[in-house]
């Protein structure tokens, strides 16, 4: 896991800025815009090591695997009143794309607009769900000055619901649900810091790599492009 941590640091710190990427090409915005890390001095702290270890542990013990039945933990709607299960958002044989993340995760927020474009493009053949999980960089944990919001660790469901409302403002057209306070969805899918999945007919068809380096909207597009031509 320490090697994994070092790889994250290397890949994140050597990425070009969004301005550099935009000036290098006149093409439409990329699915995976680069993420700039400006507080590299915080990469080797006790809180950062604890966070990386937590993510590794969830990944190792997750129950979601390609080809296996998809876990079906409870999630909560934004009004806080209704509890559903993840597979309740699937419709028939249509693929269900799951996007796990939080507002304090810079790569997730940087690619949220790309995810919305993808959802709009493939809305005729697939369903999409954002799942708000525990904060990647809470203000009372592994702090990142690149985080879009200053949000502490969730102490109760209302904290998580309030944080998810901020994501709703940035992604008004995507269905959004909230993980339970025992982090059942994050644990089942090894979703921390952020992660992508495709579920179809209750099976895991695609499992993205662990974020940040494995979090790639472009892989979703490739899968959906191939699916559309079948």
Automatic annotation (TrEMBL):
One Pfam family linked to the record: T4_deiodinase
UniProt xrefs under InterPro entries: Iodothyronine_deiodinase, Iodothyronine_deiodinase_AS, Iodothyronine_deiodinase_I/III, Thioredoxin-like_sf
Substrates-to-products reaction catalysed: 3,3'-diiodo-L-thyronine + iodide + A + H(+) = 3,3',5-triiodo-L-thyronine + AH2; L-thyronine + iodide + A + H(+) = 3-iodo-L-thyronine + AH2; 3',5'-diiodothyronamine + iodide + A + H(+) = 3,3',5'-triiodothyronamine + AH2; 3,3',5'-triiodo-L-thyronine + iodide + A + H(+) = L-thyroxine + AH2
GO CC aspect terms: endosome membrane; plasma membrane
MF terms in GO: thyroxine 5'-deiodinase activity; thyroxine 5-deiodinase activity
Assigned keywords, A-Z: Cell membrane, Endosome, Membrane, Oxidoreductase, Selenocysteine, Signal-anchor, Thyroid hormones biosynthesis, Transmembrane, Transmembrane helix
GO biological process, one term: hormone biosynthetic process
Keyword Cell cycle included in the entry's annotation: no
Protein's UniProt keywords contain Oxidoreductase: yes
Gene3D superfamilies: Glutaredoxin (3.40.30.10)
Membrane topology of this protein: Single-pass type II membrane protein
Source taxon at top rank: Eukaryota
Catalytic-site annotation from UniProt: 105
Location(s), subcellular: Cell membrane; Endosome membrane
Main subcellular location of this protein, as a coarse class: membrane
Family as reported in the entry's similarity comment: Belongs to the iodothyronine deiodinase family.
Subunit structure: Monomer. Homodimer. May undergo minor heretodimerization with DIO1 and DIO2.
Task of the protein: Responsible for the deiodination of T4 (3,5,3',5'-tetraiodothyronine).
Protein name: Iodothyronine deiodinase
Species this protein is from: Lonchura punctulata
């Amino acid at each position: 896991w320490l090697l994994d941590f070092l790889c994250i640091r290397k890949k994140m710190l050597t990425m070009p800025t969004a301005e550099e990427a935009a000036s290098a090409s006149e093409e439409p915005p990329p699915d995976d815009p680069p993420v700039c890390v400006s507080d590299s001095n915080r990469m080797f702290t006790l809180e950062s090591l604890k966070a990386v270890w937590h993510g590794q542990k969830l990944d190792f013990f997750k129950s979601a695997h390609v080809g296996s039945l998809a876990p079906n933990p409870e999630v909560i709607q934004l009004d806080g009143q209704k509890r559903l299960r993840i597979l309740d958002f699937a419709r028939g044989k249509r693929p269900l794309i799951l996007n796990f993340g939080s507002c304090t995760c810079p790569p997730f927020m940087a690619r949220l607009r790309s995810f919305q474009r993808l959802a709009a493009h493939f809305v005729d053949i697939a369903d999409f769900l954002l799942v708000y999980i525990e904060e990647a960089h809470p203000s009372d944990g592994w702090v990142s000055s690149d985080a879009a919001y200053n949000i502490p660790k969730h102490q109760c469901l209302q904290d998580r619901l309030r944080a998810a409302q901020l994501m709703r403002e940035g992604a008004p057209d995507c269905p959004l649900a909230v993980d339970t306070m025992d982090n059942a969805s994050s644990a089942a899918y090894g979703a921390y810091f952020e992660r992508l999945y495709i579920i179809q007919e209750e099976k895991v068809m695609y499992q993205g790599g662990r974020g940040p380096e494995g979090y790639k909207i472009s892989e979703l597009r490739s899968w959906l492009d191939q699916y559309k031509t079948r």
